[in-house]
Amino acid sequence: MQRRAFVKSGALALVTLGLSPSFLRRTAFGAQLMNAPKGKTLICLFQRGAADALNIVVPHGDKSYYALRPSIAIPRPGGLSRGVARDAAIDLDGFFGFHPSLAPFKPLYDRGILAPVHAVGSPSATRSHFDAQDYMETGTPDVKGTQDGWLNRYLAVQGTCDECRTSPFRAVSLTQQTPRIMEGATEVVAMNSLNEFTVRASGTQAERLEALYRTGSTDLVHGTGSEMFEAVKMLKAANPQKYAPRNGAEYPRSQFGQRLLQIAQLVKADVGLEIAFADVGGWDTHVNQGAATGQLAQRLDDFATSIAALVTDLGDRMDDVLILTMSEFGRMARENGNRGTDHGHAGALFVIGGDVKGGKVHGKWPGLANEQLYEGRDLALTTDFRSVFSEVTARHLGATKLEKIFPGFSVRSTDWLGLV
Amino acid sequence: MRLASKAFAFAAFAAVSSSASAQTRLDHRELAADQQIIHALNRLTFGPRPGDVQKVRAMGLDKWIELQLHPERIDNSSLDKFIARYSILNQDQNDLLRGYTEAQRERRLVRREAGDTAGRPSREDNMAMQQIALTRRRVMGELQSSRVARAVASNRQLEEVMTDFWLNHFNVYAQKGPPEAYYLAEYERDVIRPRSLGKFRDLLEAVAKSPAMLFYLDNARSMADSSRPRLVSDRERERRTNAARQAMRRRGRPGGRNVPGTRISPDMNEADTAMRQRQNQLRNGGLNENYGRELLELHTLGVDGGYTQQDVINVARALTGWTLRPPAVGGGFIFRPEMHDAGEKIVLGHRLKAGRGSEDGEEVLDIVSRHPSTAKYIATKLARRFISDNPPQAVIDQAAAVFLKTDGDLREVVRSIITSNEFYSRQAFRAKVKSPFEVVVSAMRAMNAQPDSTPRTAQMIAYLGQPIYGHQAPNGYPETGDAWMNTGAILNRINFGIAAAANRVPGARIAAIPGFDTLASAPRQQQVDAVVSMLLAGSVSADTRAVLMSGENPLLANAKDSAGSMTGAAVDDSPGMMANAERGPGNGLRAGARQNPLGRGDTVLPQLRGLAQVIGLALGSPEFQRR
Fold first, then answer.
1. Nearest 5°: phi and psi at A219?
2. What is the distance, to the nearest Å, from the Cα of residue A98 to the centroid of all Cα atoms in its chain?
3. In this structure, are residues A171 and A410 in contact, taking their beta carbons and an 8 Å threshold?
4. What is the arithmetic mean of pLDDT over B595-622?
5. d(C-alpha B603, C-alpha B504), whole Å
6. CA-to-CA distance for A40 and A392, rounded, in angstroms?
7. Helix (H, G, I), strand (E, B), or coil: what is residue B72?
8. Is residue B559 within 8 angstroms of chain A, CB to CB?
9. What pLDDT score was predicted for residue B170?
10. What distance in Å separates the CA atoms of residue B451 and residue B444, rounded to the nearest whole number?
């Protein structure tokens, strides 16, 4: 198992010299971090449950859309729903529009830093949430034996700056457990919240606990514990007492909103964060998904408000940050008998960042006429998700060994959509 | 006279030599006698309780192991009394599931009748939804609580360890779909536990026919593809179903006559609806390979066991028709010929004749349960659980041989592993890293805790990364240490140890440890010795002992960290989120664990002093993470 070579060998070397590693390591880190060129950060956000792309980025210009969804379609821009104008889609380009709850995204779209991508997804025919999430997180559709996630393979293969590679916070997931997308040989940190990433003991007790893990033994448990104490200290040192979002950003009090706030905290703390991950559920709207209001609308409200707050809060730093959303598949084009939608095929995602070519909807629209649907029921796929992911990793993070990150996929930069 | 004395001498010689050879066998055990006992307790139980070492020593280790291999000989009545007190768990789960499905249907009917067009959930909807969600949460809560309680308090510890092993090997995810939670009580109690040391073929069949697995891996809805012959033709099936529905409707009406316009009873209505739905499914459904694949890949041969994609398909075809009876008519397993693919199949080189019914599936189970790859795969997993993450090949080979020779007698396979010399090797001692479940349960046992009838300890286990029945994918939780040791995880374990010593774990109070009172006022040296002996298997490195004693560590001599708590934006889990917790995958069982069960993140636990501090350090130490 790979460990951060610098920390480990440095520590051991210092021990043999009889010097206290902790003290020296801290100063070494500090000096390194202050001079380190600011690396790039990629924030991946997974909508678990198969988000309904057709009601999120609404193809109001496609007449089949309204035939397929008599009770849950989003009204055309300028149209009225029960006499309420604001229930209509927010027009983007005359053909596509946003679901009204995505209003916080409109200014970002207009500024050119937000790019929706449509008809993108996985070529796999599976409609199993678990399998499809697995395939998207491991980056290997229809292959079940893959042990690691594509983000972890990226971490193993390269980074955006050499010094960043040594930070314990290079890859952080704001989730209870390490998600599949980050599983693998390279160390990542999974934490429920920054608050909780601390040893809940004070004074001598904390010191003694740390001492237990630094008794000179170098096995798996001692090693992991040792690094953990370093990470905790680093976070304490870098974290201001009270974090205040900048630029008037207001994060929702939801779990998702608060997790994005903490990602912002980590970015601004300059701890060498390169990859961040969070997920949000509640997208599996089989029954009564609602239209302009209802279940899906509520999810989108939280989703868009939180992300917009993150973008606002990060301000100028968005030049170095890219947010990539994803969902395991889209939903059926036709509504089902329960005023909801069943599992589908292609979906939509968002790419947001300073170097994104926003202000337009990317991807090739396949149409919603019956013969244009996948298996006669779902939005057809025109862009493989790995194409988008590899463009982002290459152009934003500077990755070059893409065939290692997405094995089995022939990466062709000519096929890229030009998102970044 | 001389003959007699010679005979006597010969007998005496024989006696000496046989005990000498017994002696020689024992000498191959590298561990010292007391270490063997501690090691056996670590591996065959969920951790020693105070006094366990003495009890085993008094009985004799080998005799104790033999007893544990026969759980039926061990009295467990006090645990049984405890389990009997769970109110929901002991109800008929099929009745509960019926209640659930009826409530769902009611909601839909009410909505349709009210002409609900907007799709906005009404207030009544929300309340009904919440009521349903509440009952299901209670089912899950008791399920998880009882799993922990059994691990903590059962006298049949090896049986509990084996149950844990098989529940992981035959993993089922509680959030697969709404009915799943109602299948799990029976799965654990009636399918897995009683067969955990029995014959593998029996266990495999019971799992294959369990509603829990039939639902989880979709075999319940798998049926012959349209291109394949069904055991019962479509026309025949329609005729039979219509006849059955007629008969049922007649039974449900007054006078037993089919008078149109009279209402039929809700039960009959429900069963009728189920039948109608099934007719629709039969017209539209097809083969589902999910269980067929996992049966080969995860349950028997293993991913490298030598099967092909065609084998996967044919196993799935053989198992078509193995499905669920609706809750309205009693639930449970049923074989439906109209779903079964009756064509000929070749599975792992065996030809399954055309035109058969459930015999196809039975024969597949015979084939896979006797396959040499299965013997190897199961032996490897058991050796990994009992010996080390990378067990020596010799003991795996031996166990696999026993598996084949005894036709899958799991008791014998396990015996061959836990009485082997490899089991008692120095490399095996403390070689395993505890899973979160094992950390929490072993701490409770070490502290002589009472089992917890609430779900709170289960929530702690979820918080540490192992929600019970909460593993989405069918491969189950990892069985090796490196998967559990990551930076965030170890932090939570350390904090758990501190919380336990601060009496924050339900049922566990440090004062319950025998001898606590006298020890509390004893000098530190004595406290450390006692804690090391009780909680850390009596052996720690000199460095660790030094730290426990005084906290001085030369490596940290210059570290002058001010300890302060981190502040930052508080994480507010608004109530709105909980309603969504029931919906959709990915939210899993962590609904309860999302709120930190160890308390809010920004509070520092009260400073522990004296003996409590030594205990807290011990429970949070790297040694305690191992077994």
1. -80, 180
2. 20
3. no
4. 77
5. 13
6. 11
7. helix
8. yes
9. 98
10. 8
A35 interface with B at CB cutoff 8 Å: no
Task: Return the residue of B nearest to A302 by Cα.
Answer: B577
Residue B181 DSSP label: H
DSSP assignment, residue B190? I
Closest CA to A307 of A11, A44, A4: A44
Is a pLDDT exceeding 80 seen at residue A29?
no
Chain B environment of A338 (Cβ under 8 Å): 108
Chain mean pLDDT for chain B: 82
Burial of A113 by CB count in 10 Å (0-12 exposed, 13-18 middle, 19+ buried)? Answer: buried
CB A208 to CB B551 under 8 A?
yes
Please compute Rg for chain A using Cα positions: 23
> Rounded to the nearest 5 degrees, what angle is found at the Cα of B408, between the Cα atoms of B406 and B410?
100
Phi-psi region for residue B314, left (φ > 0), alpha (ψ -120 to 50) or beta?
alpha
pLDDT, tens only, B12-38: 444 444 444 444 344 578 888 989 999
Burial class (CB in 10 A: 0-12, 13-18, 19+), A63: exposed
The pair of structure tokens assigned to B45 is: 């139980």
Give the angle subtended at the CA of A292 by the CAs of A290 and A297, to the nearest 5°.
Answer: 70
User: Do residues A174 and A259 lie in contact, with contact meaning Cβ atoms separated by under 8 Å?
Assistant: yes
Q: Tokens in use for B475?
A: 């491969």
For chain B, the straight-line distance linking the first and the last C-alpha, in angstroms and rounded, comes to 59
Tell me, letter by letter, the H, E, C secondary structure of B432-459: CECCHHHHHHHHHHHCCCCCCCCCHHHH
- Of B304, B342, B337, B343, which Cα lies nearest the Cα of B323? B337
Whether B620 and chain A come into contact, CB under 8 Å, resolves to yes
Please tell me whether residue A169 adopts helix, strand or coil conformation. coil
With CA atoms as reference, the chain A residue closest to B294 would be: A144
Cβ-contact B427, B388 below 8 angstroms: yes
A63-69 contacts, C-beta under 8 A, 24 or more apart: A64/A333, A64/A367, A64/A368, A64/A369, A64/A370, A65/A333, A65/A368, A68/A333, A68/A334, A68/A335, A68/A368, A69/A333, A69/A334, A69/A335
Residue B169, pLDDT above cutoff 90: yes
Residue B604 near chain A (CB below 8 Å): yes
Q: Which of residues 145-174 of A touch B (CB under 8 A)?
A: 145, 168
Show the tokens assigned to B181: 């939670």
> What does the block give as tokens for B485?
């040791």
| pLDDT tens-digit series, residues A75-127 | 999 865 555 556 899 999 999 999 999 999 999 999 999 999 999 999 998 87
- Supply the pTM of this predicted model: 0.79
Place of tokens 């701890």: A271
Distance CA B304, CA A204 (A): 51
Determine which of A115-129, A382-396, B378-392 has the lowest per-residue pLDDT on average: A115-129
Averaged pLDDT for residues B496-515: 90
Residue keyed to tokens 């080998």: B62
Q: Give start and end residues of each alpha helix (H) in B52-170.
A: 52-59, 61-68, 77-84, 93-113, 123-153, 157-169
| B178 within 8 A of B65, measured Cβ to Cβ | no
Count of alpha carbons within 13 Å of A151, Cβ hemisphere only?
A: 28
Query: CB count, 10 Å around CB of A202?
Result: 16
Cα gap B280→B273, rounded to integer Å: 11
Strand pairing category for A171-173 and B350-352 = unpaired
- Nearest by CB to A220, which of B472, B485, B576? B485
Residue with the two structure tokens 């207001």: A250
Radius of gyration of chain B (CA): 29
Q: How many whole angstroms separate alpha carbon B89 and alpha carbon B80?
A: 13
Tell me the pLDDT of chain A averaged across its residues. Answer: 84
Of A203, A222, A282, the CB nearest to B607: A203
A49 CB within 8 Å of a chain B CB: yes
Q: Parallel, antiparallel, or unpaired for β A189-190 and A171-173?
A: parallel
B187, amino acid identity? Y
